[in-house]
Design a protein that fits this description.
The protein is α/β, with parallel strands linked by helices and 415 residues long. It has 14 helices and 13 strands. Helices cover 37% and strands 15% of the residues. The N and C termini lie far apart (52 Å). The longest helix is centred in the middle third of the chain and has 15 residues. The strands form 3 sheets. A 6-stranded mixed β-sheet has the order 4-5-13-10-11-12, sandwiched between helices. Bound molecules: pyridoxal-5'-phosphate. The site of pyridoxal-5'-phosphate has 18 residues, from helix 5 and helix 9.
Length: 415
Amino acid sequence: MTDHATFVTHLECSMTGTKYEADRLHNLSAEGWPLLLRYDLDGVARAVTRAEVAGRRGGFWKYRELLPVRNADNVIDLGEVVTPLIRLHASEREHGVSGEVLVKDEGRLPTGSFKARGLALAVAMARELGVQSMAMPSNGNAGAALAAYASRAGIESYVFCPADTPPINLQEIALQGAHVFCIDGLIDDCGRLVREGAPSMGWFDVSTLKEPYRIEGKKTMGIELAEQLGWTLPDVIFYPTGGGTGLIGMWKAFAELEHMGWIGSQRPRMVAVQASGCAPMVRAWEEGAVHARRWEHAATVAAGIRVPAAIGDFLILRAVRESGGYAVAVEDEAIDAARARAASRDGLLLCPEGAATLAAYEQGLAAGQVGRDERVVLFNCGSGLKYPMPDAARHLPDSVTDGQPRDWAALLGDG
Ligand SMILES: *Cc1c(COP(=O)(O)O)cnc(C)c1O
């Protein structure tokens, strides 16, 4: 990455449109809503072509003209890659699909989840703007990404997690140099702690959508997807929705790409997938509401989407509506079953959140909300290896090491 002036012109309150200056550290707007970065898109379109960008090596930093980092020295490189689109042939056959079911496997990114995209941007901007300490609430993956990028940048990081966060997440966060704390509460309770501590501790609060940079990293999923599909978009995108950064970010990316003439006006239907034990967006969608009420007693195996309240709720719902998509909840049992099927038949170990999108796709096929001839992209946001799996191996009797002839059928049974 060479030095370049950013094409950022200003920031804008996502609710009121009030403008804010670029190149300064921001959290929420004065009105208390997420801020979005705006670019001189005509300038970007004059500066580079989509073919030039596609020809660059490496992961999402190749879209640097559409990102806010000014000085390339502030980029922290952990080996970001273009994540593959993997077809689920077995699922296609089972459901008689003539279209395509593609999984965008984000588990291949540094720290094993797509949170790397957002935190790479947030930490690079923090470095550029002189931040020395960052804090966030996390269900696991965001904290791991913050820890890794911040430690590498020499920035201190503090992560607050619900006590039942998957243990491996707490361990990776700690090992990657962050201060990690657990509380008996949910992610929004953790967020309150960060908010309270920020002024006296000097933390830059990097909670989801409470600063404007993570979403810029997440939007690169949409640019990358368009490039991978030859500058077209799929018919439907199934996105496991927690705080919604990825869904909102991709929707923003599509608008920017169209403005530059890199894609046309066709848009995927955006489907916000949640777990039935924590489905505030689905409830708001069904009620036709602008905002979502907090979901009480949230519980699901899909930790990454256990988000009872999201500050960007209206942006998620707006994108879903504009796209002609919908919001849908899936049961934990359906998540586990979809995860087992994809792993055993397609050789792809999804995280529970990713499996939720497969379950939602199958539900959508059955309900006629998705056509068998459509091209569908499911987001697998994290490595399946980070989550508990059922115990599986059978123990063979000690006598098998005796070197005697044996009855294999009797020994192994039909397992
Ligand atoms: C964070 C996370 C999500 C939710 O992503 P948002 O863009 O914040 O809605 C989904 N799955 C996994 C594995 C996550 O870590």
